[in-house]
Amino acid sequence: MNRKGINYDVGIEFNGKDLSRLEFNTHIIARELEIIKNDLHCNAIRISGTNINRLRAASEKALELGFEVWLSPHLHDHDRYETYNYTLQSALMAEELRSRWQNLVFITGCELTLFMNGILDGKNIYERLNNLSNIDQNKFQEANRKLNAFLKETCENIRKVFKGKITYASVPVLEDVDWSLFDFIGLDHYRDKRNRDAYEQIVGSYFKYNKPVIITEVGCCAYQGAEDAGGSGFMILDTYNPGRLNGTYVRDEGLQSSEVGELMTILEAQGVEGIFVFTFVAPVFLHNENPLFDADMASYGIVKSYNSKKGETYPDMSWEPKEVFYVVADKYKE
Predict the structure, then answer these.
(1) What burial class does residue 106 get, using C-beta atoms within 10 Å of its C-beta: 0-12 exposed, 13-18 middle, 19+ buried?
(2) pTM
(3) What is the pLDDT of residue 112?
(4) Domain ranges of the chain
(5) Are 223 and 236 in contact (CB under 8 A)?
(6) Cβ proximity of 73 and 50 under 8 Å
(7) What is the dihedral of CA 48, 311, 223, 187, to 10 degrees?
(8) By percentage, how much of the chain surpasses pLDDT 70?
(9) For residue range 97-126, what is the model confidence (pLDDT) as tens digits?
(10) Domain 3-221+250-283+300-333 annotated CATH 3.20.20.80
């Protein structure tokens, strides 16, 4: 496995106003990247965010540290035209970095069937996810037609301005991507109750394209039952009361660490080219001793974020590693 990676969020915009990372402090960014390199033993990093200046600054620092950067611009809940223009603008910035460091891959989009307006019904990801159960095969085919038409036009124009390799972070099974457009196959591949028995088979089905398979996201939340929720684990948040969960859940860092460790072992045995564990830190999902307000349980972060105190392991950081942090570090150290 050549790419030993982690997802790193510099601030993704949701609902036109909410950010997954409120503060962008260049000192903190640099320190976290050093920890990811030296203590997690990562050689690749997927840098995700909405603000292009933030993406540039974090990517530049990561490139200076010797990472292979997988640049992943996110524009959620915008239409095809706005998403296309934003992606091209991001590609221009990415090429400026690539021309200096070379070691950069551009991710053309992330789960656009769910995150972009106009493919599935619904004004945001929550509505689109809830509508999935009511979609028949004809609507799925139409959704994939729209997706691939967008990707074809976008890739053709990205190739004109970005001279490096490109991929797309897809939802396996749901999205039937035209992989001839890309250099790598990218899969945001979570395990849940529905696909548990077929998880390995699903990954294996993508090797038929004779292109390197990259797991652009894999992870699990830290509560009992999260292993069955997979990529929907975050939906235990109360959407009407920020920072609060929608019910009673039992925190379980051991479950998170064992699930992620097992998935990494499975994927490496499958022969994937690389893995990007999701995710390093989720600063707005704050840990709280009161389980009802422990938003970190809804986070895939391998560290837990604090509101008003520093961690013990890294006293200069406002977070503490979870058990899964050390599982990932040991896997990559091997």
Answers:
(1) buried
(2) 0.97
(3) 98
(4) 3-221+250-283+300-333
(5) yes
(6) yes
(7) 20
(8) 100
(9) 999 999 999 999 999 999 999 999 888 888
(10) yes
**Quick one: tokens of 22?**
């409120």
Residue 214: beta bridge partners? 186, 274
Residue 310: pLDDT over 80: yes
Say which range, 7-16, 152-161, 253-262, 263-272, has the weakest mean pLDDT: 7-16
Query: How many residues make up the chain in this entry?
Result: 334
Q: Is the peptide bond before 50 cis (omega within 30 degrees of 0)?
A: no
In the predicted structure, residue 177 carries a pLDDT above the cut 90: yes
Crossing angle for the helix pair 323-333 and 253-270, nearest 10 degrees? Answer: 20
Q: d(Cα 152, Cα 144) in Å, to the nearest integer?
A: 12
Q: How far is the C-alpha of 323 from the C-alpha of 154, rounded, in Å? A: 40
**β-pairing verdict for 3-9 and 44-49:** parallel
pLDDT at 18: 82
Residue 334: count of CB within 10 angstroms of its CB: 9
For residue 53, which amino acid is it? N
- pLDDT of the residue at 137: 84
Please state the rounded mean pLDDT for residues 193-222: 98
SS3 state at 168: strand
Q: Looking at the DSSP assignment, which residues form a beta bridge with residue 187?
A: 170, 215
Question: How many other C-beta atoms lie within 10 A of the C-beta of residue 79?
Answer: 10
pLDDT band at 51 (very low <50, low <70, confident <90, very high): very high
Distances from the Cα of 34 to the Cα of 30, 96, 152, 312, angstroms? 6, 23, 37, 17
Return contacts of 52-57, CB within 8 angstroms, 24+ apart: 52/89, 52/90, 52/93, 54/10, 54/11, 54/24, 55/10, 55/90, 55/93, 56/93, 56/97, 57/10, 57/24, 57/26, 57/29
Quickly count: other Cβ atoms within 10 Å of residue 214's Cβ. Answer: 27
Interior/surface letters 295-312, b for 16+ CB within 10 angstroms, e for the rest? bbbbbbbbbbbbeeeebe
**pLDDT the model gives residue 243:** 85
Phi, psi of 298 (to 5 degrees): -90, 5
